[in-house]
Amino acid sequence: MTADEAALFALWLRDSCAPAPDLVRFVSSLAMADGEEMPLPLPATGGGEEVLAEIRRHIDTFDVF
Q1: In this model, does residue 65 exceed pLDDT 70?
Q2: At what angle do helices 3-12 and 48-62 cross, to 10 degrees?
Q3: Spatial CA neighbour of 22 closest among 56, 38, 45
Q4: Which end of the chain has fewer surrounding CB within 10 Å, N or C?
């Protein structure tokens, strides 16, 4: 899944399915491969651009190649 696709899915999940917005969390396979086990909370507010920015910031943190 691309970051764009993940952001759309996460936004839909947060806004349509989760009973509280702070229940939606994410972690990338890059982070898990680096030993990270704690998922990050999705922003509780904001639209697709804010969610995408948070996901990209997360990926950039672990994409060191």
Answers
A1: no
A2: 130
A3: 45
A4: C
